[in-house]
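Incident log, support desk, overnight shift.

02:14 A customer reports that sequence design results differ from what the structure should imply. Their input is reproduced verbatim below. On-call engineer (initials T.W.) acknowledged and began investigating.
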C-alpha cells in the first residue's frame, strides 16, 4: 500500500549545544529522520530531505512516498582493536637497510624494525646486521637504544629509549587521531600530529625536552 510520510526535526547550532567534549546530543527526532532516509535508500523508496532555517534554528524535513520502511537503528561502526593490546617482543624485529632516517647524515640507515599497523615503528639502529652485536663486534644491550619512528619516512621523535619505554611511547602516539600512514610532510599541518609529538616528548623526553613540550602543548591548547 502506497503512503506519504512527512517528518520535521529541529537541529540546534553547534554553538548552542554546549562546548566540547560532550555537547548536548542532537534530538531523537533528527536521528529518526536520518534512520528513515537510510532505510528508504536501502529499499529504493523515493524520498527527499530538505533543509531550511526558521527562528534561527535549522530545520530538517524528510518526505517519502511509497511503501514506507521501518526506520531501523543505524549500524554501529566495527570495533577496532585497541592499540594497547599490542605487545611486541624484541625478537619480532627484522633487519632493514633503510630502517630509520639519520637527520645528521641526511640519509636512511640500517637497523632492526618492529612495525605497528598504525604506521609507526620501533627501530634499533644496527650496522652489524646482528641483534646484540655492535659495529665493532662487541656485545651491546639490545634492551636499550630504541627509536620510535614514522615508518614511511624513517623520521623519529628525537628520543632514544629502552625497549619497553619506546613501545609505550609508540602506543601513546598511536592513541591520537592521526593517520600515521600519511606522508610526513602532509602531517605537519595537522594539530593532532603536533599534539601527539609534543605529548610523547612531554612524557618520555629528558628534562629540557619535557619542559619545552609542555609549553608547546599549552600553546596548542590556547590556539584551539
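02:41 Re-run completed on a clean worker. Output:
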Amino acid at each position: 500500500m502506497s503512503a506519504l510520510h512527512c517528518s520535521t526535526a529541529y537541529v540546534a547550532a553547534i554553538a548552542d549545544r554546549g562546548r566540547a567534549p560532550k555537547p548536548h546530543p542532537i534530538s531523537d527526532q533528527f536521528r529518526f529522520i536520518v534512520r528513515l532516509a537510510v532505510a528508504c535508500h536501502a529499499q529504493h523508496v523515493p524520498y527527499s530531505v530538505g533543509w531550511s532555517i526558521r527562528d534561527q534554528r535549522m530545520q530538517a524535513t524528510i518526505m517519502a512516498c511509497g511503501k514506507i520502511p521501518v526506520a531501523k537503528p543505524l549500524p554501529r561502526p566495527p570495533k577496532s582493536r585497541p592499540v594497547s593490546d599490542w605487545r611486541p617482543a624484541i625478537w619480532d624485529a627484522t633487519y632493514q637497510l633503510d630502517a630509520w632516517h639519520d637527520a645528521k647524515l641526511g640519509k636512511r640507515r640500517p637497523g632492526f624494525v618492529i612495525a605497528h599497523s598504525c604506521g609507526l615503528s620501533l627501530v634499533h639502529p644496527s650496522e652489524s646486521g646482528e641483534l646484540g652485536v655492535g659495529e665493532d663486534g662487541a656485545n651491546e644491550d639490545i634492551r636499550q637504544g630504541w627509536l620510535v619512528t614514522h615508518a614511511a619516512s624513517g623520521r623519529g621523535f628525537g628520543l632514544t629509549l629502552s625497549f619497553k619505554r619506546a613501545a609505550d611511547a609508540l602506543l601513546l602516539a598511536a592513541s591520537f587521531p592521526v593517520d600515521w600512514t600519511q606522508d610526513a610532510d602532509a602531517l605537519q599541518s595537522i594539530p593532532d600530529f603536533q599534539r601527539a609529538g609534543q605529548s610523547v616528548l612531554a612524557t618520555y623526553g629528558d628534562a629540557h625536552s619535557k619542559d619545552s613540550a609542555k609549553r608547546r602543548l599549552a600553546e596548542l591548547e590556547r590556539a584551539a
